[in-house]
Amino acid sequence: MNLESQPVRYVGHEFANTDYHDGQLRPVVGVHHFQVLRANRTHPEWAEDSGWTYNHAPMLAYWNNRFYLEYLSNPVGEHIPPGQTLLTTSADGIHWEKPIVIFPIRRVPAGVYRGPYPLPPNSDAVMHQRMGFYTARDGRLLILGFYGCCPSTLDMPNDGWGIGRVVREAYRDGTFGPIYFLRYNRHAGWNESNTFFPFYKQSQDAGFVAACDELLANKLVTLQWWEEDRSQDGFYAVPGYKALSYYHLPDGRVVGLWKWSKAAISADEGKTWTPVADVPSLVMAGAKIWGQRTSDGRYALVYNPSPDGEHRWPLAVVTSDDGINFDKLRLVSGEVPPRRFIGTFKDFGQNYVRGICEGDGIPPDGAMWITYSMNKEDIWITRVPVPICDAVAEPVNDSFDDMPTGGLVPGWNIYSPCWARVSVIDFPSREDKSLELRDEDPYDYAKAERIFPESTRVTIEFSVMCRERVNDGQLQIEVTDPYGNPAVRIIFDSDGGIKGGHREYVLAGYRPHQWYKLTLSVDAIRHGWRLAVNDNIVLPADPTLMPIRSVSRLIFRTGERRREPTLESDRFMGADLPHADDKALPVTFCINDVMTSQHEPL
Q: Which residue positions in the chain have pLDDT lower than 50?
């Protein structure tokens, strides 16, 4: 299929090299990643109180001046009951409340299930949902989920034999209304007489009933439901496709995107569509794609640009002026930590990306917020600044003093797990702040990255302090080209040495609670670099780690570069990682006074 015949299309020339978690793509500037939930089996009180390690399919809304995030959960693996859906909220997208159960475990009523495999007695339902929220015209927020049945791992809760879709209302005081069924899978035998929640029409709240009626009448929004429902009663305009994402074009038409590189266009709000077409220029597999119009009037598609559905990395974005022709494949997330818990169908990487659907709120900062599961066990949220760009024009001069304590770090790319936080802190004082990387995670790290003007010759200055005992961990510092290839690596190692160079020479020593000023100069033309510590030259000249054309990225990371999982990693193999639920001894480094400038040849 040629590009012109595709309803939407990628017209760029960059593709992801999936031998690398980041695809060797240029990163979008200023992206922040925050871990919302870190699954914990043996200390459930540190997670969601259940101790379940399969967490997946998050959905996002912004309502009542808060972010609302819903996700489904099973004890160990995909489609293995019992299942429940949880909800968490946040005022800023950074700090999240402990998740609560919003749709609880329920036993499948006996004697009704008609699926192709026998249902074991006393089976619990499994949750599934392709849509989590709906904001009605009167401002009510509805929360939705779907109860499905899984007799065996050969079945799925979204095969059409499940029970039905449920709904409840979120109130502005932080409480929630009762649970009702919104739509039954009547063709599968489920109805008002044999299910465990009442039908929504029985509610005494006329406004709630009207909001549900409004939702049911919306053919565009409800098209997201087909996969779990699969009825043939004419309710769905386009059956047969999974995980719809959509956005409006300036002329009022709607672009619909589905899994497996499918797309179509509707001119009547989802009542009818052009034939669903393959879009081979958008390379993807069975993971979801997210599309939206951004606050600057442009468009963005976020997806895993890989044909391999078991190894879902990187998470990337393409952008467009017209919503049809997309260009510039850029990196959103290239971090894939180890999967700590084994489980059925737990694909590696960033799974099932979703953003905020049209009508479900607009955060006041104008950024694009997206959510996804990592390895189908942890839940993450990502803030992508708008406009989406991959370069900076001005040299870096960051003292952090004018940045909000504990808030966003403008201009920096932040990777901040629950146990390896990156944040601006009032240290050494409120007037002289610094960027802290505090790592207590035995299998992950904190990472802060500053993109600077792409240069062939650059001098970079910054100060570093270790705030813990020296033998508790390390800080790795890299200067890379735009694609992540390292030219320089410096290590504040656990033995008290500052190391660097091809053979990791010990260049100096360091002690805790002391600042060390590092000045390094990189010459990409001559493929060399030098380093001074506290204005003393400790490495007068050394080759870069590899030949590169230019440099543009400064990276601070409390751990080594990750190589695994690889494309050869088997999602069904392995074992739970030891001591994954216990914090490690803290590793804390502070960064201050980061500056870049041009320099003469070395």
A: none
